[in-house]
User: Fold DUF4212 domain-containing protein from Cytobacillus spartinae.
Amino acid sequence: MKKIDKEVADRYFRERTRNIIIYFIIWFIVSFGVVMFAEPLSNFTINGFPFHYFMGAQGAVLTFIILLFVNAKVSDNIDKKYGIDESKNEQISSGKVLDH
Assistant:
């Protein structure tokens, strides 16, 4: 198995951790921010419903699904940037690696 330098591993996990923190901030704003500011947000309407109701009923769920796809795409790009190859990991876990 290929060894990764500590400096490269630290940069990799720092970048992944930064992205996770950004996702949590977005999650917090969508989940709790809309509820905290429900009264001022009720002036806006989407499909005839107040904005805070729409975000609670459908908008939050859609935002979380979008966050899942964004996280998957960004994580794949970060893995490629730091040389982490998924197909190589699958080979190693199946025991079919020829170059030990």
